[in-house]
Design brief:
The structure is a homodimer.
Chain A (H helix, E strand, L loop, with lengths): L9 E6 L7 H15 L3 E7 L1 H9 L9 E4 L10 H7 L4 H10 L5 E4 L3 H12 L9 E7 L4 E5 L9 H18 L6 E5 L10 H11 L4 E6 L11 E3 L2 H26 L3 H21 L7 E4 L5 E3 L6 H16 L2 H11 L4 H5 L10
Parallel strand pairs in A: 1-2, 1-4, 2-3, 4-11, 6-9, 7-8, 7-9
Antiparallel strand pairs in A: 5-6, 5-10, 10-11
Chain lengths: 358, 358
């Protein structure tokens, strides 16, 4: 993952109350970030200041390596996204995004309720010029390195135009953050031929084929982990199901393996000896390594962390937010959509008669 | 998995030329089946008789434990499904299904090209009364036992009526083959609330909620492997992507583990000691255990095996075909769709205004 150049400096708001563990994890992540990124990344922790300060005390630092802004409310995991936006104007999430809206920070990181972060960000920051639908992108490890998958849940019902723009935004993202030039974009479908898939993918394939993106065609479920593409495009329904299925697989394999190792002494010794290797596998597959899921297409930088994020995941998300802001990812997306975009007619027309306008 | 009662007897056609390895694997599977099921399952191998006989010779049996019917053609993996049906009337697949159509066998098993098997079966045998769309079901292992997932590829574009019928057919299947009474049916979606998901799942949820099925509501991608449901319903696009992704995960983990074990001697010793346990895990996760994918909803029994099937997978598919035929699974599906079905109006109406008719 790219890091800041020595001349770059950013200021980031961190929703201290978000996530399953609230300030206890977020504060530790912020301290890790301060150590790693130093003065190039100024952090502003937004949340219950008493709780934040209490967490800081655990680390026996002279002063907290970040600013604290008190907020009186918290968006809980059970809050409705839209209600929390309407009613909880003083929440740590709302205050963080307001800071960004006013230009006082360059990015926001939150491990809160995904739907709420998305809704707050979209309503507070608005959409980027030309973007029809913002999308959530995640990073999957692959045989080769990593692949960016989007959308993974923001848009359960999509049209071809939306998927096309996801391809553009995903390309810019992986180009910026993973420093891949001319990233390969694949369309997740069932069957490699352009005519295979559902109505949505058949129409989207046409848009991609006529574009300047480095489109490798349809890919199948089995191709995701091989690293055949740098960007995998799908609608938010399919992406979310695959993401959650993938998250559950490691635990399933472990429980099966434990059951089979059972009381057999040799198997147990074997498992013990393999522990360091298996830990390294787990680390490679751990989403914490990849720094949260960017909400692409809003007019600002918002990184959504998993509710169960570790301090390391928070720290890495701060790193991604910093590079996204410093490298002007949104300017790049805007330019790319201008060069590689759809005509006004295509933006509005029905799905069946697309052709790209270069 | 259920086995035949001692009084049951069936006759099954086996497409000897199907699959990546053709007769070499299919003949071995048939011999394993003959040993395991004895005279209760009469097998008819359809294919190039010279090639089949040559394979039989390898086993040094006095006589082949099955009948052989010669066919002159083979549907290859690269043939178009519809073209193969129109042009290759003498293929092993076509001849097998013709035997079933004429009532000379009770079921057909093929490891051929999935699309071709589906097309041939549908056109030769026709749909079951009341069935809108046949679906392909697969069995996934879970933390508890197994779950049946459908559709996994026959129908990339679905309406709520189709998904509803998949639920009915999947229930009957797992009740018959896995002997689960009142199987729990889950609808694969993103979010557990009935209002969450895409348009298709929101509409399907309403149909299931009003039905007599044991509907547990929406489930998420992470719930598939926990065994929360006995039947997981989804459209063929989502199901196929999840199936192929799942098939790729084992290999990905193995390659990652091998890389991490690397040249470290202790890790290597550990891996060696764990081999028997890991082999048992692999066996449990091996699709070969679960006997192929039934094509549910056609007026006959057709079991589709993976192209790369092992002899054991072929043998188990024969077992599933035998029980499906002997227990009259299609009569049960027809009855169930009669009791638990949609009204004529619902079968034709748009998706938005469904309510179930009991």
């Amino acid at each position: 993952m790219k890091r800041l150049d020595s001349s770059q400096k950013v200021r980031i708001a961190l929703d201290a109350m978000g996530g399953d563990y609230g300030p206890s994890v977020v504060v530790e992540g912020a301290i890790m970030a301060a150590e790693e990124f130093g003065k190039q990344v100024e952090l502003v922790l937004v949340g219950n200041s008493r709780m934040i300060e209490k967490e800081v005390e655990r680390f026996k630092l002279k002063t907290a390596p970040f600013e604290i802004i008190h907020s009186s409310e918290t968006v809980s995991m059970s809050d409705s996204a839209i209600q929390s936006f309407r009613k909880k104007k003083g929440s740590s999430l709302a205050v963080s995004l307001d800071l960004q809206k006013r230009g006082e920070v360059n990015a926001t990181v939150s491990a809160g309720h995904t739907g709420a972060v998305m809704t707050h960000a979209l309503f507070t920051l608005g959409r980027l010029e030309r973007v029809l639908r913002p999308a959530i992108a995640v990073v999957f490890p692959t045989e080769k390195d990593v692949t960016v998958i989007l959308d993974v849940g923001a848009n359960p019902n999509c049209k071809a135009q939306h998927l096309y723009q996801f391809g553009v935004m995903g390309s810019v993202y992986t180009n910026t953050i993973h420093e891949k030039s001319n990233p390969k974009v694949g369309l997740l479908s069932i069957g490699e031929e352009s005519s295979k898939g559902n109505e949505l993918t058949v129409n989207t394939n046409k848009l991609f084929t006529g574009s300047n993106l480095n489109f490798t065609g349809n890919i199948e479920g089995r191709d995701v982990l091989t690293g055949k593409c740098d960007v995998v495009v799908c609608d938010g329904f399919v992406g979310n199901i695959m993401l959650k299925f993938a998250e559950s697989v490691g635990g399933f394999f472990r429980s099966q393996a434990k059951r089979q190792v059972g009381k057999n002494i040799l198997s147990n010794v074997g498992a013990f000896l393999m522990r360091p290797a298996l830990r390294r596998v787990r680390e490679k597959l751990d989403y914490a390594e990849y720094g949260g899921a960017p909400l692409l297409g809003v007019d600002g930088i918002t990184i959504i962390c998993h509710g169960g994020s570790s301090p390391k995941a928070i720290k890495n998300a701060i790193g991604v937010a910093a590079v996204s802001a410093a490298d002007g990812i949104n300017e790049k997306i805007k330019n790319n959509l201008r060069i590689n975009g759809l005509t006004g007619k295509q933006m509005k027309t029905e799905e069946n008669d697309f052709s790209i306008d270069k």
